[in-house]
Amino acid sequence: MSEKKKELRSRHWYGGTHKDGFIHRSWMKNQGFPDHVFDGRPIIGICNTWSELTPCNSHLRILAEGVKRGVWEAGGFPVEFPVSSLGETQMRPTAMLFRNLLAMDVEEAIRAHGIDGVVLLGGCDKTTPGQLMGAASVDLPTIVVSSGPMLNGKWKGKDIGSGTDVWKFSEAVRAGEMSMQEFMAAESGMSRSPGVCMTMGTATTMASIVEAMGLSLPTNAALPAVDARRMALAHMTGKRIVEMVHEDLRLSKILTKKNFENGIVANAAVGGSTNAVVHLLAIAGRAGVDLCLDDFDRVGGQVPCIVNCMPSGKYLIEDLAYAGGLPAVMNRIQHLLHADAPTVFGLPISKYWAGADVYNDDVIRPLDNPLRAAAGIRVLKGNLAPNGAVIKPSAASEHLLSHEGPAFVFETIEELKAKIDDPDLPVTEDTILVLKGCGPKGYPGMAEVGNMPIPRRLVEKGVRDMVRISDARMSGTAFGTVVLHVSPEANAGGPLAIVRTGDRIRLDAMNGELNLLVSEEEFASRMAAWQPPEQKWQRGYYKLYYDTVLQADKGADLDFLVGKSGSEVQRESH
Ligand code: FES
């Protein structure tokens, strides 16, 4: 047995001649594994978020077979294991409430088992960050294989995009421009293959960031879920993870500040989701990388959006794949990236874009004709958001990015739902809609409700966008002049809690300002009078979450999960 094989972590489980070694091997053999697979070869865990209740990840057991082929071919021993899965469209009150729970599950599952490297199979919005957070706290060699997008939605001879067209259709129904029959018929055409939302929603945003950070093989972000080349990519990933174990190329060697900065640049260039902000902050917290909200402004603020995909543009991710995918995007913005950032290959990230051509200049725009210049997520500060808020200019209306108007306040999401279609709601297109109680603690889970519907009486007049401000998130597929992630949130005593209907608010997105225009004395007296809401959650995960969740500007992780514990486990099980 070589010295290298002796060092493998899995030998502590499967290499012993004592009773524990017997127990570990013998029970695994009930699956038909022969003696020789326990000979000291790398054991690769395939961490799978497959679930029929996560439709975006429902094909991941097939991709796991591709990974296994590659692991066997490279001389490893693949073992697939499930972790909890988070279906964005299926969970209440919001899948985000459970991202940190998934991260705990992933962390402990990896650490507890005798594996040497991990392939993370995820896709739907929270599965990718949840898996990376957990894996970062253990720090084994790790690669991501993403679900890949659904094929383009098709309806009435047109391409329709996940999420983005749902928001448009539901507004059209409210405006009387679309029948309920048509609305229902569009459902089937929108989701017609396995895979994640095929707009630049949070899933493909995170997959793009993963690729730009060198955490997956090239082309992982955009290849359709059902494209045979994704299966081949899974196979190649299986081969590579075995080599990474031999090289001891751990996740911490790839999660450097440069890689995070490349992720921020890529997010801006693809017109990615605001959700990436909370997820990258949380992953950085696990990895011990000093990333803060202002880095998104500093690094991404001036980056042009060159990917013309919904919700910022008009195409879908299948089109992005055929136009060259992320390697071609990175090639176009290479002057903005750290070319020497490390990757899962142990090679610099510049190898990912070397020779990558663009095949459609309208899908991946040239730098002299971007979809929008200076399109990165902007961080807003001011007396209304002392610790920050975010806005996505590429999905906003240009004329509203600098706007002052009177607030109309909804104290809860229930109040909003009850009143928004009131024909007498006293609002105009200049009104700023404010929603409270939807942050990490308030909802709980910081739901994707920040893109409040436009009041019906304004929709009927043709208004399609207004300034909206909340402590919530919004779907990566959504659009509008929407200020999100206000921190601290209302339920944690942030100034959002003291806004009243009729107060004037000023937004200056491109200068990073968000202010409540009341006198200092009035502001101070309202803050002094604020009372924290009653803590409703007395048991279970909700209580743990509520008591320990961090605010959005810190990534909304649980405070005791920040950092890492490594991979060592001292004691045997028997
Ligand atoms: Fe799963 Fe959009 S709902 S990726």
TrEMBL record:
<keyword id="KW-0411">Iron-sulfur</keyword>
<protein>
    <submittedName>
        <fullName>Galactonate dehydratase</fullName>
    </submittedName>
</protein>
<dbReference type="Pfam" id="PF24877">
    <property type="entry name" value="ILV_EDD_C"/>
</dbReference>
<comment type="similarity">
    <text>Belongs to the IlvD/Edd family.</text>
</comment>
<dbReference type="GO" id="GO:0046872">
    <property type="term" value="F:metal ion binding"/>
</dbReference>
<dbReference type="InterPro" id="IPR020558">
    <property type="entry name" value="DiOHA_6PGluconate_deHydtase_CS"/>
</dbReference>
<dbReference type="InterPro" id="IPR000581">
    <property type="entry name" value="ILV_EDD_N"/>
</dbReference>
<dbReference type="Pfam" id="PF00920">
    <property type="entry name" value="ILVD_EDD_N"/>
</dbReference>
<feature type="domain" description="Dihydroxy-acid/6-phosphogluconate dehydratase N-terminal">
    <location>
        <begin position="41"/>
        <end position="348"/>
    </location>
</feature>
<feature type="domain" description="Dihydroxy-acid/6-phosphogluconate dehydratase C-terminal">
    <location>
        <begin position="362"/>
        <end position="556"/>
    </location>
</feature>
<dbReference type="InterPro" id="IPR056740">
    <property type="entry name" value="ILV_EDD_C"/>
</dbReference>
<keyword id="KW-0456">Lyase</keyword>
<keyword id="KW-0479">Metal-binding</keyword>
<dbReference type="InterPro" id="IPR037237">
    <property type="entry name" value="IlvD/EDD_N"/>
</dbReference>
<keyword id="KW-0408">Iron</keyword>
<dbReference type="GO" id="GO:0016836">
    <property type="term" value="F:hydro-lyase activity"/>
</dbReference>
<dbReference type="InterPro" id="IPR052352">
    <property type="entry name" value="Sugar_Degrad_Dehydratases"/>
</dbReference>
<dbReference type="GO" id="GO:0051536">
    <property type="term" value="F:iron-sulfur cluster binding"/>
</dbReference>
<dbReference type="InterPro" id="IPR042096">
    <property type="entry name" value="Dihydro-acid_dehy_C"/>
</dbReference>
